[in-house]
Structure formats: C-alpha cells, structure tokens
C-alpha cells in the first residue's frame, strides 16, 4: 500500500499497524519464554562455564577504553537515562508517557529474573586480577538479567517506535540506527566493566523490549494515561521529580566525575526551566 492509498484508507492502515505490533509482541514473548526455559535447563554452573572464556575475551579486548565504557554503562542507569530523556516532556509527551508506562514491567521482570536465576556475577567467582573491573566490584548473585540492559532497551524500544511512527518527520532511519547502536554499546559496556556475563545482556534486551512494548500498548490503549503528562497541574510534579534526580546525581559519589551524568544534570535543569516557563505563561 502506497502513501496515497494509506491516506485514503486510514482504518486499514491502523489495523495493519496494530497487526504488526501484536505480531512483534507475540514473537518477542515466544523468544523470551524459550530463552528462560533454556537457561533454566542449563543450570547456573553450566550457564557460567559455557561463556566464561567468552566473557574474559570480550572484557580483555575492551579494557583499553575505560572512560568510554564507564560513560556508556551509566547511560543504562535509570536516573541518568531518564534525566537525559527528560527533554521528551517538552518535545514528545506521548513518548514520555509510553516510557513511563514501561517502568512497572521493566522493574518486575528485572527483579524476578535476578531472584529466579540467582546467577553469580563474574567478580563473585573469578579472581579479580584475572580480568578488568571498572568501578565497584559487584559480587552478588544478581547477574541475570543485566538491569542496565533492561533499562536501555526499554527506552530504546519506545524511542524507536516514536521515530518510526512520527508522521510529521517520517521514519528517521539514520537516527533509528544510531539509537539502536547506542543501546548495543550500553549493553556491551556491562561486560567491559566486568559486571555481567555476555548472555545476561541478551535476556536483559528481551526483557527491555517486552517492557517497552507494554508501555507503548498502555499509552495507545488508554488515552487518559497519555493525557496526564501534558496536564498543566502535573508539570510541577515532573519538575520536582527531575530535580530530585539531579540532587541524587550531585550528592551521590557513585555518580561523581562522569560526563554523561553531568549532561543529565544539565538536561534536567533545561527541561525544568522550560516546564516552569510554560506554567507561568498559562
């Protein structure tokens, strides 16, 4: 169907888009369930041993660029990422609503996965002088899935959907490719800093895609969920939340000296100023 036919048959276009969306959702769910079954069947020991050599190889190959990888990995931090994306409150409130709607499932899948699998992190079983650790050594049994990967793929799924469905600008494939590449780099950074096994990233990406799709569905299905983002009375709430994010990043030593963190802080103040400005106008 070309563009002229699509414009003359909007109902058919919407139904086609909905069909594609549901197919992608079902396919993602099937892949996710299959992946979880395989990991459960393997068991923790086999899961680790099957990729230990791969982890050490990737970690060693990427260890020459610590500053780059630490910045990449902080892009998967929820507070930093949401601070950077806060501009969506001004530029694309519907995208922000979909992103916000993705949070519950993302948290649920991440927490349940870590509890259910209870996979030791690399630093819990490999001597620390055998591989590169950037930042704090994580030694808990919470390796699977990668929470940072869940976060970045949740956000990227929503952003790619927004770019693909932007009728005003049209599908922005170059930007979509850049966004997808950034997500992959954030995921890989978790191996580079010595925090996760390679396959932790795969499950984290699947969890993130499912979570992003859930937020898209909620924002499309329930108009009231999307509209609250643009209501003037809630703008002060957004400002307060964003300023809390900035305060956490400023006073917490965990975030000190990281370029993308300061970029996130700057974005918070920019977005907050814009939101306050629109409030005063009205």
SSE layout and pairings?
Layout: H1 3-8, H2 10-42, H3 44-49, H4 52-62, H5 66-74, H6 78-84, H7 88-91, H8 93-117, H9 122-125, H10 147-164, H11 173-192, H12 198-221, H13 223-230, H14 235-251, H15 259-281
Short description:
This protein has 282 residues and is mainly alpha-helical. It has helices at residues 3-8, 10-42, 44-49, 52-62, 66-74, 78-84, 88-91, 93-117, 122-125, 147-164, 173-192, 198-221, 223-230, 235-251, 259-281.
Largest sheet: none
Q: How many E-type strands?
A: 0
SSE order, one letter for each helix or strand: HHHHHHHHHHHHHHH
What is the helical fraction, as a range of percent?
Answer: over 70%
Shape: globular
Count of helical segments?
A: 15
Low-confidence runs (pLDDT<50, min 5 residues)?
1-10
Q: What is the CA–CA distance across the termini?
A: 43 Å
The class by helix and strand makeup works out as: mainly alpha
| CA-atom Rg in angstroms | 20 Å
The average pLDDT value, as a whole number, equals 87
| Percent of residues in beta strands | under 5%
Would you mind describing this structure in some detail?
The protein has about 280 residues and is mainly alpha-helical. The protein is built from 15 helices and no strands. The chain has helices at about 5-10, 10-40, 45-50, 50-60, 65-75, 80-85, 90, 95-115, 120-125, 145-165, 175-190, 200-220, 225-230, 235-250, 260-280. Helix 10 packs antiparallel against helix 11 (about 175-190). The longest helix is centred in the first third of the chain and has 33 residues, at about 10-40. The radius of gyration is 20 Å and the shape is globular. The termini are far apart. The relative contact order is 0.15. Mean pLDDT is about 85; it is low at about 1-10.
């Amino acid at each position: 169907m070309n563009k002229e036919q699509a414009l003359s048959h909007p109902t058919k276009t919407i139904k086609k888009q909905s069909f594609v969306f549901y197919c992608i959702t079902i396919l993602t769910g099937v892949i996710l369930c299959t992946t979880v079954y395989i990991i459960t069947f393997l068991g923790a020991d086999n899961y680790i041993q099957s990729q230990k050599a791969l982890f050490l190889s990737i970690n060693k190959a990427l260890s020459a660029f610590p500053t780059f990888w630490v910045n990449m990995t902080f892009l998967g931090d929820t507070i930093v990422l949401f601070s950077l994306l806060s501009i969506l409150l001004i530029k694309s409130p519907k995208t922000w609503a979909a992103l916000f709607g993705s949070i519950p499932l993302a948290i649920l899948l991440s927490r349940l996965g870590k509890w259910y699998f209870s996979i030791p992190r690399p630093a819990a079983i490999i001597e620390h002088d055998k591989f590169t650790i950037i930042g704090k050594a994580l030694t808990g049994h919470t390796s699977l899935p990668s929470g940072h990967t869940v976060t970045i793929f949740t956000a990227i799924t929503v952003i790619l959907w927004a770019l693909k469905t932007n009728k005003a600008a049209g599908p922005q494939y170059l930007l979509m490719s850049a966004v997808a590449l950034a997500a992959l780099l954030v995921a890989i950074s978790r191996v580079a800093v010595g925090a996760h096994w390679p396959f932790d990233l795969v499950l984290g990406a699947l969890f993130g895609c499912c979570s992003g799709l859930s937020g898209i569905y909620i924002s499309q299905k329930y108009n009231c969920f999307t509209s609250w983002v643009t209501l003037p009375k809630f703008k002060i709430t957004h400002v307060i939340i964003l300023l809390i994010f900035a305060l956490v990043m400023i006073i917490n030593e965990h975030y000190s000296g990281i370029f993308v963190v300061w970029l996130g802080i700057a974005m918070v103040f920019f977005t907050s100023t814009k939101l306050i400005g629109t409030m005063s106008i009205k």
